[in-house]
Amino acid sequence: MTRTSPQGVDLDCQRCPLARSRLQVVPGSGDPQARLMLVGEAPGASEDQGGEPFIGRAGSILDGALDEAGMSRERLWIANTVRCRPPENRTPRPAEIANCSFQLDAELGTVAPRVMIALGATAASALLGRPVSLKDEAGSVHRIRRAELDLRCVVTYHPAGIIYRPSARTNLVEDLTLAWELSQG
Ligand code: SF4
Question: What is the pLDDT of residue 137?
């Protein structure tokens, strides 16, 4: 019998080759009635082992940025574009993101947020359906329709990117604050 998360994520999914190298499918986590959903790229080694998104080094950076913005992950839903760790943490391929979109749609359908925030160019490109350059579009707000929801989507930097570009931390905090305010309006 197939196992699913409370939000309908298929925990035994075999739809793409990432199933062969993962330890486990990583569903989203947080407040199941959150108004704001954060979407990152893919699980890394810590997430693959622990079964939760953003619990490694990038997760620590995200927690710090959320704290600075006066927020906490308990009030959000946090997920990724793909739910299985790509080998050697490579960027997920467009076909893998497309295959995995049903998992995000399942969570969107049950959590029903008002606002999404795309963490990094991969997530932003996946959510907006076109290539996104953070240099040009970080901090921008878009309207999207997905899983029968009318959503606003804020584009920002991925917490892991802050390791190599510390100056972007200010942008991340500002964009998290903006997304939170939009979600509460
Ligand atoms: S990445 Fe998504 S589509 Fe591919 S096997 Fe994992 S859960 Fe299934």
Answer: 97
